Amino acid sequence: HLGPAHHCQFSSWGISRFDQLSSRFDRCGIRPQSGRQLTTRQDLDFQLSQVQINSILRLNEQTRSVPEFDGRGLNTVRKFESNQLPANTPNEDRRSVATCLQSKGMLFGVFDGHGGWACAQAVSERLLYYIAVAMMPKQSLEMLEKCMEHGRPVPPILQWYKHHTDFNYRESASLYIDHLRVFWQELLDSEEHVEGMSPAEALGCAFKRLDADISLEAQVPFSNDLMKNTAIQVAFAGCTGCVAHVGTDGIHVANAGDCRVILGVQEDDGTWSALPLSQDHNAENQAEVERIKAQHPSSERDTVITDNRLLGVLMPLRAFGDVQFKWSLELQRSILASLESGADLDSLNVYQYTPPNYLTPPYLDAAPEIIYHKLRPQDRFLILGTDGLWDELGNEEAVQLVGEHLSGIHLQAPVSPSERQLKLGQMHELLLKRQARASMAFDANAATHLIRHALGTGDYGELCQERLASMLALPEDLARMYRDDITATVVYLNSDLAKCNYS
């Protein structure tokens, strides 16, 4: 996500050591994302067995079925499957799934960190709580507050679906609870908050409120150095985020940045189509570019977006954290100067820099774009993914992969009149592509199926074992040059419930 000044330094793999790596990747059609061709004098062994490939790909798998009836009504979600494959060490992506216990619906989130993992970690822990609290009616919030006042156990707000590798910021838990409580106290003081916010209102409010709290926490004094350092790390790192609230009647998606949610639709003839439920907030989105430019003087129109990046540095145009693009320079210097003199900014992964042409901050915010979709019987599943997935797969391709994985049916379009005129060599290529689409799936988990195809698909749509092995066997300090962290979550929808609601 960050510009050239923030690329990793590949200290243990000097560029002079890259010779035969490039010829191996050339055969598989792999190019570094940076556009730089690498060579090494060593003949590196990129051969992984099928067992090793499967072990790497399935390490972070998660598959959970959801009860059809949860005591309050029928669930719109049947089950979900999720997976992550890191390129950074440690992984900068995060994912969250939870059922709202004091209101209705399920929440699914994917978060893509940059400048470290700290911000994505904090947002993945906290954002779903803010959304759920905002949807709670005043009566339920009053119960929470009374329990806190009298030291009684607080009724659970969310039922989390965690992977065994997930962790929380334990040292900051009390701070996070305190600020969540301040949020619900403000809702209690509001005369308008009676029945609770709608999902759309709650999503918009929660994104902005959490980002404001992240900014505030980095500015207040702490007696605990660990909490202070964590707050600084979170605020100076950044992350994009996309959250889907799946309710009884429809889906609300809130997006800030370049994660993405796609709806898989099965048409009457059995074919699959993709319906985007989010828009990427980057320089390829012209409406987003104009939105940013309109917030600053006309004299900055040529400098706000440079080289398709915000101020020439940041690729996403909305994000949590990233206070280097939000605070005044005076505030940034003051906060960093307030750290203990012995604090090592490098060890905190905090970079003290000023983006070019930093004249009229803030340049960045975390206000989400919210899209609502009323559920229909043909709506079969959601795919949530960080941009590492969408760098490798198109929307239609991803839906086709999951749809055919779900149905086990690989529909082939009839040979068109133009295809009948192909020469023999071209016809052979067409047959290879059609054959590749009909190949058996390796994975029960659809998210793993997506990641396998994202990294291992060859020129004809076939799975190339050599390509996949090469991508998975890259050393830690090379992997990020060829791919990004990938997170994918596939949410299967209850089409029977949609039929009832739709009719």
Overview of this structure, please?
The strands form three sheets. Strands 3, 4, 5, 6, 7, 12 and 13 form a seven-stranded antiparallel sheet that branches. Strands 1-2-15-14-8-9 form a six-stranded antiparallel sheet. A two-stranded antiparallel ribbon has the order 10-11. The protein is of the alpha+beta class. The chain has helices at 20-28, 50-57, 118-135, 138-149, 173-189, 199-217, 225-236, 286-294, 329-338, 387-390, 395-407, 417-420, 424-437, 446-456, 465-472, 476-482, 495-502, and strands at residues 62-65, 77-85, 93-100, 106-114, 158-160, 238-246, 250-256, 260-266, 272-276, 305-306, 309-310, 320-321, 369-374, 379-385, 486-493. It is globular and about 70 Å long. Helices cover 36% and strands 17% of the residues. It has 17 helices and 15 strands. The chain has one domain (47-502): Phosphatase 2c, domain 1 (4-Layer Sandwich). Residues 4-21 and 36-44 have low confidence and may be disordered. Helix 2 (50-57) crosses helix 15 (465-472) and helix 4 packs across helix 5.
